[in-house]
Amino acid sequence: MQSDQAPYLDSDPDPLAVLSHLEAAIEHTAPEVFDRETDDVSASDRMAATGAVATTAAEHPLAASQCAPQLLTVLTHVTTATETEASLTQGERQRLVRELCGALRDIATETPSAVYDHLTDLQTLLAADALEARAVAAEVLAQAADEYPAQFQHPDAVLSATLGDSLVSIQRHGADIAATLCAEWPAEVSANIPTLIDLLDAADDDLRQKAANAIHEISIVTPSRVAEDTDVLGAHLRDSDGHFRSLIILVFLELAEVDHEAIWNYADDIRWNLTQSHESARERAGVLLARLSILSTEKLPTLVDILETALKVETTESLSIPVQQLANIHPAPATELYDLLLQEATGEDWELDTREDFIIAAYWITEATDAVPAEETLERLKPVLSSEHAALRAAVALLYLEVHEIAPTKVENTLRAPGEAASEDLTELAWIDTDAFDEQATAPVLKQIQSQAESKVGEVDTTPPDTADLIEPTYTWARKENPSVVLQRAVDAMQREDRTVLAEIDEVVSYLSRNSRVTQRVAIRVFYLASLKHPQQAARHLDEVLDLTTSPFTQIRRSALWIVLTLVDNNPKPVVENPEPFLDGLTHEDRLTRQAAAWTLVEISSRETSGLAAVVDQLIAAIETEHVLSSFAVEVVLADIVATNPESLQPHTGPLLEKLQLGLRADPDEFKTVDSLVDLETTEAEDEISLSLFPMKEFLNDQNRIDERPLMSALLSLFLFDSSLSVKHSDGIRDLLGGAARDTKQGLWLLGLTARAGEPGVAEFAEDISTLLLTEKALNPQVTEELADCLVSVTDVIPAAFVPWVDELISRLLEIEETAATDADHHGLVTALLGLISACLTEMDPERYPTPDRFLAFLKYDDDAGKHATSILGRLVDTYPSEGGEAREAIVEWCASSQDTADLVGAVEFLTRTGSVSTLNETFETAHED
Fold it and tell me: Which Gene3D superfamilies match (predicted)?
């Protein structure tokens, strides 16, 4: 092979020429050229051809993908053949493998199908002695398993090779492959459980977590097989790595379905996890406890000690389920928790639903056992009667009424105001019922209170207010049929994956409309599972779920919103046509409800913005400092609206600028919260319905949008639509410029956009920009780049506006050059300032011109700065002819080093005007012969 026949052998190859000869390059790297008997290709030619393949794959992966089979063949040959067979030195071989692996990875990234069609060759590479070849094969196989699991015919060889490899990164890919393929190939993957269990003791934390995740995925498909190793898995329940523990607990959640008796043996380990600091492990331990309380009701009494410990450390909201199960089914042993439940119910550290559940559990205990709280406990509950949350008021009223039947004096002493006559004791109870209960739902209790109150104080107004919430005080449904029965029946139907699930889902849907909070809570949990497993089928019932998005009960409302978010892709029409519940949800006090509502609005705005354009003021009001994640989602909605209907946001420019100044910045703890929510395994547990924020987390991670807020994108689009907005809202722009560095950057961004649009009114801000340049903030890394861009933009439009500030700007320029000359971050600002000063000189009286010596130093900067400096010097030479000599020498030196003749216009002008034609000719002859 001759160099003049191969463009990829040139020292500076043309990529298009390489592309046209790609097949030739591949041919020269084919296995036969490494056969010693026929090898007539030099090592340098062989390496050049391989380099061409790698370069072409990186720059033109789509075209290179057609050569994927040859690439794999060559790579397999080179990595599996002996050194003698390959006729390669060790150095040649390593370089060849490295470049071919890079090419293969580039092709797989851009056109994965081109590589996935050759799984057999990739599997062969797993036996290569070159680590890089094995690593890239494992990486691509993991991608293929994720996208094309059915194409893996009997993947036991791949799993055996990857999981048993000596390289940790390859073992990680093996664990990912096992997790991905277990649903498609359960028998083959399950055979590797012993290896995965061994990896749970690996030194690498990431590998351990991936192995645990794979075991969890297998436990979903074949729980009985994983259950055989329950003892080995249980040994990891107290591991020091909280995330790893949380994955093991997920496995136990699945194993509880097939052998809950065995899981009860780890009750102490569950208790220990409930007291630890890792949030995900605590939450999942609570879910596991809840699952056990549903599956093994006869063992509920043994939970008393565990629940007591967990309640005292306020560990997880999931405790409300075992607490209610215990109180409802085994109230006698639950009396040990009685006062503790009510103490926790008065605390602010629990969600409102959980506090309400604790009070209702106490109500059940009292009803069944005649146990009553101490007077001090009743006293602590009294402030809840004035709570703005009707459901909490109702729960306390129910408890008071039940206790009143057993120990009336305790209740009367608690409710009687100082100095109040005993004959008026029950007036307070009647008032509570009227304000908190719906008349129809609470008729028995209402009549009882009314009759007792009338006998002592006369008639009582029992008309319920319009805002009353619904509650079924006696929870008769829960006594007629345990919620776990409905739950288990529906779960079994979904796991059968047969047509009977249709009838089961219909039955669950029928429960959604019942006038019972307990019924609805159980039904919506089951329907959530159905929406995950059968989204198209569940989406047919989206109207019923939408009815619950305005439920007065937080947990039901939150769950309904999340289900809508899950199913909107399958049935968007009713959601898009009915945005009101989600707008209302933006102001809800529950964080997860707000976030679910906000992200559902994002789903709506991505499809249709006409309905949302009419409620822009509501959306803007929902952007609040303390509601970071939901506020970001709302800003995405506003950006969608301005893209299709900017007129609707024009009148709201002022409020938008005010919201931009809010310190809407998520700290690490906020992101930690997001990570704990973004966990599909957790949300798949039927007793843990929390909001999944995959799309929001993606958005927040994309382009580090904590600094680049979507609201900024909306405002940029708005200012592009109407460039006069910066002048109309000059106060808002000035507030940004005078704010923190982040605000200043955004204000400059808007001004620069306005200037680039040719808006002359931006001259109004010349003083503000000049003043900013004189401050230390101008050198802040967050501000400098945007300030430089803004200066370039205003220079083209309004240079005359800066003439009064020229002296100060020059002084500031010299100061920056003196103090920050070595800082490349400030070169852009220096260049922009030079350009502005140069433009100002054209508008100035020559008598005000500065002396040339002040600008000589800037010839040492890059060509852009030198271009502006020579332009300035050329204009000053007539005013200061005596200083022309020094300037001429500096410019000649700069001309000799300049890389771009197009930048020499100012130099030519200067040298011509100073009569230095010979110097000019000499400079061009020596430095720019071309």
Answer: Leucine-rich Repeat Variant
Amino acid code (one letter) for 94? Q
Mean pLDDT of all residues belonging to the chain = 75
> Using one digit for the tens of pLDDT, what is the confidence trace for 587-615?
887 777 888 888 889 889 988 888 888 88
CATH number reported for the structural domain that contains residue 691 in this entry: 1.25.10.10
Position 756 confidence tier, pLDDT thresholds 50, 70, 90: confident
- The range of the structural domain enclosing residue 776 comes to 764-927
Determine the angle formed by the axes of helices 884-897 and 917-927, rounding to 10 degrees.
20
* Number of domains into which the chain is organized: 3
Cβ–Cβ < 8 Å for 553, 517: yes
- The Cα–Cα gap between 191 and 207 comes to 19
Kindly state whether residues 813 and 693 are assigned to the same domain: no
The answer to whether residues 693 and 769 belong to one domain is no
- 907 close to 894: Cβ distance less than 8 angstroms: yes
* Residue 169 token pair: 């990164």
And the tokens for 382? 């009294």
pTM score? 0.48
Residue 264 lies in a domain: no
Shared-domain flag, residues 685 and 775: no
In 648-709, which ranges are continuous DSSP H helix? 653-660, 668-677, 680-684, 694-701
Whose CA is closest to 273, among 313, 216, 218, 333? 313
**244-247-249 Cα angle (round to 5):** 115
Q: How far is CA 663 from CA 294, 348, 700, 742, 824, in A?
A: 45, 26, 16, 9, 29
Query: Is the separation of the CB atoms in 171 and 207 below 8 Å?
Result: yes
Residues 448 and 2: their CA atoms lie apart, in Å, by 105
The answer to whether position 832 is within a domain reads yes
